[in-house]
Amino acid sequence: AQPPGDPRGVIRGCLPFAIRTPHVRATLILITVAGLFVYEYSVVLPIFARFTFGGDADMFATMSSTMGAGAVVGGLMAASRVTQVPVLLARSALIFGTIQILVSISPNVWLAYALLVVLGGCSVTFISTANTTLQLSSDPEMRGRVMGLYVLGFFGTTPFGGPLMGWIGEHFSPRWSLAVGGITLILAAIYALPRLGREPLVGGVSKMPPPPAKITD
Questions:
Q1: 20 to 30 A from 192, CA-CA: which of 20, 86, 126, 140?
Q2: Which of 4-8, 167-171, 198-202 reaches the highest mean pLDDT?
Q3: Collapsing DSSP states into helix, strand and coil, what is residue 206?
Q4: Phi then psi for 2, rounded to 5 degrees?
């Protein structure tokens, strides 16, 4: 038996549950795709400002500030939601990816600023919805382990996603760095859409039928 807290035991004990549970599997895929391709703004926005619009540090700061303002609004809207319906996560991912593509093709910086406000709101809405969906879709004894996979998929992909998006921006265009993130998130959302139910999640279990098998420690 693995000692308590051993990451190998945590992953082995949680992965079968995550794979077998549609809500959890689809959400983790969305989170991993977003962590790898989308949430690399600290790498992409500076080169987007510099090489797409010929800006400087002030332009990058303005882009970051507009995203931050949108994130505040998006956070307040997400916090005001009373019920959590899993399919809303896939829909928010579709909107998030679409807005990111629109940012990537902005013809001027002023339109980019306006779209970045919306993008910031979508960013926070998506990540908070994913967090809530995972926690409410997981059995109580699996919840901590599932959130460990959430952290691994979202933050653990940064060492790979950052250099990848930077390479795309350097060899193709910063616009492509943003566009690739949006496209991959839309594709992941299309995969997740039929696997995330329309029934509200209540008390850690949805009203959908449970998976056929269940892991017990």
A1: 140
A2: 167-171
A3: strand
A4: -80, 140
The Cα 54–Cα 52 span in angstroms is 6
Q: How far apart are CA 195 and CA 30, in angstroms?
A: 12
Please state, in angstroms and as integers, the Cα–Cα distance from residue 7 to each residue in 20, 27, 69, 99, 169, following that order: 20, 21, 37, 37, 35
Query: Tokens 């995330």 map to which residue?
Result: 196
Alpha carbon distance 161, 47 (integer Å): 15
115-154 confidence digits (pLDDT tens): 999 999 999 999 988 888 888 877 777 777 888 888 888 8
- Find the length of the chain: 217
Measuring CA to CA, how many Å separate 188 from each of 21, 25, 93, 96? 17, 12, 8, 12
Give the 3-state secondary structure of residue 1.
Answer: coil
Beta strands in the chain (DSSP E): 201-202, 205-206
Claim: this prediction has a pTM higher than 0.90: no
Q: What angle do CA 87, 181, 130 make, to 5 degrees?
A: 30
Which distant-in-sequence residues (6+ apart) come within 8 Å of 65 by Cβ? none
Strand partners, 198: none
Q: Which residue from 129, 130, 126 is spatially nearest to 94, judged by alpha carbons?
A: 126
